[in-house]
Design brief:
By secondary structure, the protein is of the alpha+beta class. It is built from nine helices and five strands. The two termini are about 20 Å apart. InterPro entries: Nitroreductase, Nitroreductase-like. Belongs to the nitroreductase family. Keywords: Oxidoreductase.
């Protein structure tokens, strides 16, 4: 079954329409968002699945205009660094005009960041792992010598993915909830270029990892269908 992002079938649940029109909305009105709605977004995030049901996520919510103004220079530095490197050229398959519109929206958000109504910083602290010797031996037996050696080589990546898998499902819930409430939001990780400075500005503990910076507000403009690759191009059945 194919899915038309612009015209979901009438028999589909409303959630499909929400997903099919959930663009990254970067142009925000300065009008405040009621606390009750912002708390709904965090509740939606908390409902997201968390690996091992550890639920060690925390969410920093910024709405104070003075704090946002202090963060604005950090945001500008991160955006400028992105546009000078990864964002210098559009992704493959995106025409120049469309990419130009995206960059213009990014620059608008950069230049008006101090007026952002709300900013959500999802955080996560993975507990220290201390497997005993018997557990390590049994693990090695289960995986085999070659796979155990490979796991040791990619341990840092494995740990990062484990943490991310605990927090990003909640982030997606937050984005879906924002769209459902008519709010604009977009996920960014640019702040990681200056994570230590962001954490200092927001008094986030040093051992707490941050996973995104999500501006939220009422949109300037309207939601519309997302543009994505067709399912037939990305689907591999029963293997690659």
């Amino acid at each position: 079954m194919s899915i038309d992002a612009g015209n979901p079938a009438p028999s589909q649940p409303p959630l499909f329409d929400t997903m099919a029109t959930m663009r990254a909305m970067r142009r925000l009105k300065p009008d405040p968002v009621p606390d009750a709605l912002l708390e709904q977004l965090i509740q939606a995030a908390v409902w997201g699945p968390s690996g091992g049901n550890m639920q060690r996520y925390e969410y920093v919510l910024v709405t104070d205009r003075a704090v946002m103004q202090r963060l604005a220079p950090l945001w500008k530095r991160c955006v400028d660094a992105y546009l000078a490197t990864t964002g210098k050229h559009g992704p493959e398959g995106m025409d120049e005009a469309a990419y130009g519109r995206m960059v213009a929206a990014i620059e608008y958000q950069r230049d008006h960041f101090a007026q952002t109504p709300a900013l959500v910083i999802p955080c996560y602290r993975m507990p220290a792992q201390a497997p005993d010797e018997d557990g390590l031996r049994r693990s090695a037996e289960a995986l085999g010598e070659s796979a155990s050696a490979q796991l040791a080589r990619i341990q840092e990546r494995f740990a990062a993915l484990a943490e991310g898998s605990c927090v990003y499902p909640g982030v997606q819930n937050l984005l879906l909830a924002a769209r459902g409430l008519g709010l604009a939001a977009n996920i960014t990780i640019w702040h990681l270029m200056l994570e230590a400075e962001w954490k200092q500005a927001l008094s986030i503990p040093e051992d707490m990892h941050t996973f995104a910076a999500i501006p939220v507000g009422w949109p300037r403009g309207t939601f519309g269908p997302v543009r994505r690759r067709p399912v037939a191009e990305v689907l591999h059945r029963d293997g690659w």
